[in-house]
Amino acid sequence: MPQNKRESLIFTIIMCFTMVLWMSMYNVTLHMGGFSMTVLKEGWLGFPFAYIYAMCFDWFVVSHLAKSVAFRFFVKPDSAPLKKAIAVSCCMVIPMVIVMSFYGSLEACVKSGMWSLLLPVWITNIPKNLIMALPFQLIVAGPFVRKVFRSAFPEGKVLA
């Protein structure tokens, strides 16, 4: 877990990159009906805007809210680090899925011009994204990013 604001920003940049890239590919695969080189191309082309959108919401809105909820209802500051990481991750994924599903729906409506589908597409994307994002975050991205982060930035090396 990051120990200060700088570590938190670096960790967020890495985590957001990992999650947005994976979820972009997943969503493009769903909408195109299967995985192909076109999926990679479309997912990568849409990635920069999705990443900026996700970083802004993560850093300025969701992160504070998720940590508040996690530490108020699920863990205490003296809880085990893994328990804190899991609680915060779960509290981050749910609002980020809602926000990013809206972004994906908005992007689809811009491309298709069918604005009447914004709400139905958004509502149907939330569960599809949640069933992928939560396990991916807990089983793959979370452990991977924590390992990469602590390997690159050993505890106490990034000053506040």
Automatic annotation (TrEMBL):
InterPro entries: DUF2798 (IPR021529). The keyword Lyase does not apply. Pfam families: DUF2798. The chain crosses the membrane at residues 9-30, 50-74, 86-106, 126-145. Coiled coil: none annotated. Keywords: Membrane, Transmembrane, Transmembrane helix. The keyword Electron transport does not apply. This is DUF2798 domain-containing protein. It comes from Hominiventricola filiformis.
